[in-house]
Structures are given as structure tokens and as C-alpha cells.
Amino acid sequence: MNGSPIELICPAGTPAALRAAVDAGADAVYAGFRDQTNARNFPGLNFSRAELREGIAYARERGCKLFVAINTYPEAGNLAPWQAAVDDAARLGADAVILADLGLLDYTAQRHPGLRRHLSVQATASSPEAIRFYAEAFGVRRVVLPRVLTVADIERVRAEVDVELEVFAFGGMCVMAEGRCSLSSYATGRSPNKDGVCSPASHVRYEDEGDHVLSRLGNFTINRYRQGEPAGYPTLCKGRFVPAEGPAGYLFEEPISLNAIEILPQLARAGVSALKIEGRQRGRAYVSQVVRAFRAALDALARGEPVPADPLDGITEGNRDTAGAYEARWR
Amino acid sequence: MTDGQRRTPYLSLGPVLFNWAADQWRDFYFRVADEAPVDVVYVGEVVCSKRAPFHEPFLPAVIDRLERGGKQVVLSSLGLIAEARERRQGAELAAEADRLVEANDLALVAQLAGRPHVIGPFINVYNEGTLRVLAQRGASRVCLPFELSGAAVGVLARAVPGVEIEVQVFGRVPLALSVRCYHARAHGLHKDGCQFVCGLDPDGMAVKTLDGEPFLTVNGTQTMSHSICQLLEQCGALSEFGVDGFRLSPHKVDMVAVAALYRAVIDGRKEAPAATEELAKIAGFAPFSNGFFFAREGHRRIVPGRAGGE
Questions:
Q1: Is B195 on the interface with A (CB under 8 A)?
Q2: Do residues B172 and B163 touch, judged by C-beta distance below 8 A?
Q3: For residue A268, with 0-12 CB atoms within 10 Å meaning exposed, 13-18 middle and 19 or more buried, which class applies?
């Protein structure tokens, strides 16, 4: 919209992934602390305070920013871990914090007015009215849009708000409005909003049935597939179920990844400020490969050249991808 | 507020979440107006903006009848506001000056600021910090999210004086919202040409696992639990926490009888175990659950004192 280049925002679940993202051309890396304050609270993942300090230094020396995701909803009667995360992000010099909770946004705006505030996708700000609310009430400068809007919707939002828009470009795809989903909680007692996990590995079991594999989450069968069939991780909404009407199958969504690389020109025209790569739970190799591909695509776009053909076939879930809700036909 | 000053909790009837035929929808509310021992009734389309036009012609008569029946009528908004049609419906609701509005999307919160309003269960209120922010902007009542534990409800009920706290104690649990319609998808249709197939299932469409276990319920763009969240046994504890209101979510069962049972338990005229047995006869279309209250899996039914529950 203002002609400034689109920022590439990349995931880092470990210091190694952070360095990989920076080296592959990220404009900013997002990371979280090693606790329930962020939405990728997985074992062996995330950053200690010392690691984050080093990560910020590594990024900054190479002209890259660092955002800290503190995007779960603080527990009633136990706000301290979330407030400490914000305080520490400010103290360590993070370029922005990515928040979802109204109370935590308010706390941050009051205590750290100079710390840039981004609204997490977990807040599901899906309309100009909601976005303006966050901007006016808490000085939010950027909103990560929920994956429920079409490109045309995004363009309309852009025309009505004076806030930067960040959209997901690649990776795992929520089919439900983010931050409004208790499916995982219903099956496992562990929720994205409260615990920072969805369909956690601790509750997943695979049962070998000879030529088939059964995947279960908590007490529930999520999928049954032939050995070798690309079925993906048993995230609840990517399982096979039997509706009362219609055939058994992937009722909500197939095991598939979001890949918006082919519609980057449309997203650019719609006026997005930043593209987000999902995948803080993914390894260094994934981060390198995806960031490199999107760096090349954005650079080509900036030069007015066609976006290079998608080189990411090997790493999408189920080896398939979709532009998801960006296209109205997905609904 | 001290325990001594605490009033008897009110009983409310949440918005009909399913796509009932408009005349049945109207008749349901007429009967509620005349017979149901509830104090508050929420009316309005929460799930899908495409359904709203069917009920609109009957809305004035329904509201009038409910108010003449002594009920407080609250107008509920959509749970997810994104499209132009949804934004228009939200703005119209926010402009409603005569009645309390329940905001189920943050879009409404800005528009309702500065006057009393209700925060619905689809807005994330997980802690006292958020509750305080909303109260400062005019929220006078908050119906808490479904996945909160009893312990969290207890903290919130004590946190901000002057804001009423309401909790759903009966009905399938809304678990997720999408822009994709799974009812249409199951029928091989697209949302834009959905033929309103969600209307075929007045309590939602059953979804089983591949091994035939009932698991979820699809209600258009909404995904719900198969089980019925049922907190009769927890009403006493919730009341002691200072919870002000108990919400019943409508199903195609005798909701007047359901309300009467809850009313009797809340008023101390009936013991919860006996009421639970009676409720199972009235609303036996799915098992009961209460796992969220105990900070466990939502589908579980925990019986306190029994090891492992269930």
C-alpha cells in the first residue's frame, strides 16, 4: 500500500532454528519462552531468557528483528508468568510482543508503552471493527489476521484500518477460527488457549493393525490409514470421522498445509505488511527451506518479476497444499 | 459481596444455536415466555449469518411475548464477524438502544462501549485482567467461556464487583467456529449453496469416530460436543463461588421441564442427584459431561469422590 517491502516473519522453536531463519533471509523471527505463555508450548522447544538474549543479538547483528509470542490466555489467579514474560521481553530488547489476551494487552500498554504490540492470530480479530478496537484501546500496531478471511476480505479490511496486517503464508492450517477452539481441550484436557498446545503428542497413540495404522488422541480414534499413506499428525480437525450424513472421511479438513506462495501478488495488492511462516515446532531444515523459498519469492515480487515456481513439495503435510480460506471456494 | 448478601442466582436460557424452522423457533419462545421458570432469555442468531433472515419476521413478537412474561430479553450477536453481511448485522444490533446486547465477537465490544452490555461465552475471558478491562468499558455481565475450570470460575466470580458472572450449566458445548460449513460439506455442498441442510438436524448432526464412537456434533459452521454439559451437581459450588447466573442452552427437549429442574435445585427444593436422574429422562439423547469444570477432558463425566471419575 505504501510501497514498503513486505516483511517475512519466520518461526524459531530453538536457537538453531533462529539462526537458520536469520541466515535464510528472515526480516523478523518470532519465538516464545519455554513455558505455557506461548502457543507452541511443546517439550524441548522454545527459549530460556539467556537463549532469547543471544537470539536477539544474533538477529540484530544481521539486520533482523525479533518478536516474542506471549499469545496464550493467562490463567485466572495466576497472571504473574505472563506478565513476567512481557517484562522480560521488554528488558531483553524484543522488537515486539505478540499478544492475544485483553488483560495482558492492557498490562503491556500501561507498563511498557514503548514496546511494540502485535495482536496474535489467537485473538481472532476478523473485522475492521475488532481491529480498530485493539488499536484504539491498546495501541496495537499490527494484527495477525485469522485464517478465515479471503484475499478480498483482507483488501476491504486494509482500506478501513490504519494498522499493519500480517497474514499466514505457509505451514499448518487451522480450519477453525483460531483462539476460539476447544476441540483439543474436549478430547485431551489440554487447550491452545490455556496451555499453548493443540492435540498434544503426549496424548497421541498409534496402533499397528498390520496393513493399517490407527491414530488416537486421548480416547478417540482420529484416523485409520494404510501403512505408508500420507496421513499426517493426528490433529483433531485433520482426522477422518463419520458424519450422520454423507461419507466417512476428512469432515473438517484433509491433512494439508497452507501454502500461499502462488497468491503472493494478490496478497501484496491487498496491502499486507508482513507474511508469516508457521512452524515453531519444526526443525532447522524446514525453516531454512521455507524461508529461502519465500525470501526468493518476495525478492522477485519486489523486482516486479514473476514469483518463482513452488519448490516446497517435499515438506507440506500429506505432501499437499492449499490456499485455504484465502479463496472463497474453501468455505 | 458477602455470602450473607448474596441473592439467589438467576436462571437464563441461552440463544437457540440450531437452525430450527422459524415457526417452531417462534413457538418455542412463546412457550418459554408463558411457562419456563427462567429470568433471562437470550435471542438471536449466533452461528451463521445466513440463517438470521428466517427468524427476523418473528423477532418483535417473540421479544414482546417474553417481556410480557416477565423475562429480561438480551439480544445475542454472531460468534464470528468477518463478512460484510455479518458486520452489518453486528452494527444493527449495537445500535439497538432499548435492550441489552450480548457481544460474542470483539467487533461489538467497541460499538457497545460506555453502556451496559453482556459479554458472551465466545469472547475469551480467561482471567481477572481481561474481566477488569471489559468491566471498565461497560460490560455488566459476562457469560464465561465453556472450557474454564470451576477453579477459574471461582477466581473470576470474586474478581470484579458489580459484574454479573454467568456459566452454562446445560447443553452441548460449542467447541469451535469456522467460516467453512461442515454441515454443507458433509452433504457434498458448498457454504454458498448450502440449501440450509443444517435445518435437518434440530440438535446438530452426529459425528462419530471411525470405530463408531459418538464424539462431536456439527451445527453448520459450529462444531459442538456430542455430550451434554450438565452441571446440576456443581450448581451449589458455583453458587458459593458467587456465580450470579446459570445458563441453559436450548435443545429439542422439554426445556420448560429442564428449567424447572434446575430452578428446583438452585432454590434448594430438590437434591442434585435426584434431579440428575430426572434430567436423564428428559434429555437422554446424549450422555452428560462435566470434565471442563474439573479441569479435565471436556467429554468426561467426573463424579466427585469416585476415583478416576466416570
A1: no
A2: no
A3: middle
- Please state, in angstroms and rounded to a whole number, the distance separating the CA atoms of residues A320 and A307: 19
φ, ψ of residue A259 to 5 degrees: the values are: -145, 110
Question: Do both A228 and A82 map to the same domain?
Answer: no
What H or E segment, with its residue span, contains residue B143?
strand B139-143
- Write out chain B residues lying below 8 Å of A219, CB-based: 297, 299
Same domain for A24 and A167? Answer: yes
Q: Which domain holds residue A81?
A: 7-173+256-330
Calculate how close chain A gets to B137, using CA atoms only, in Å.
10
A residues 123-152 closer than 8 Å to B (CB): 123-130, 132-134, 136-137, 146, 148-149
Same domain, A146 and A242: no
- The interface predicted TM-score of the complex, written ipTM, equals 0.95
- Whole-angstrom distance, CA of residue B205 vs CA of residue B19: 11
Q: If contacts are CB pairs under 8 Å, which of residues 173-212 in chain A contact chain B?
A: 175-177, 179-183, 185-189, 191, 193-194
Kindly provide the b/e burial profile for residues A59-93, where b requires at least 16 CB atoms within 10 angstroms of the residue's own CB.
beeeebbbbbbbbbbbbbeebeebbbbbbbbbebe
| Domain carrying residue B140 | 3-173+227-285
In chain B, residues with a C-beta closer than 8 Å to the C-beta of A153 are: 82-83
Q: CA–CA separation, A141 vs B40, rounded Å?
A: 39
Q: How many beta carbons lie within 10 A of that of residue B163, not counting itself?
A: 18
> Is residue A295 domain-shared with residue A238, that is, in the same domain?
no
**Domains: count for chain A:** 2
Q: Which of residues 8-47 of B touch A (CB under 8 A)?
A: none
Is A314 a domain residue? yes
Q: Indicate if A244 and A125 belong to the same structural domain.
A: no
* Residue whose grid cell is 460499538: B111
Domain end marker among A214, A236, A255: A255
Angle in degrees, CA A123, A128, A131, rounded to 5: 35
CB nearest B178 (choices: A177, A189, A243)? A177
Same structural domain, A157 and A266:
yes
- Domain assignment present for B157: yes
Per-residue pLDDT tens, chain A, 331 aa: give them: 345 789 999 999 999 999 999 999 999 999 999 999 988 888 889 999 999 999 999 999 999 999 999 999 999 999 999 999 999 999 999 999 999 999 999 999 999 999 999 999 999 999 999 999 999 999 999 999 998 899 999 999 999 999 999 999 999 888 999 999 999 999 999 999 999 999 999 999 999 999 999 999 999 999 999 998 877 889 999 999 999 998 999 999 988 889 999 899 999 999 999 999 999 999 999 999 999 999 999 999 999 999 887 667 667 666 678 888 888 788 8
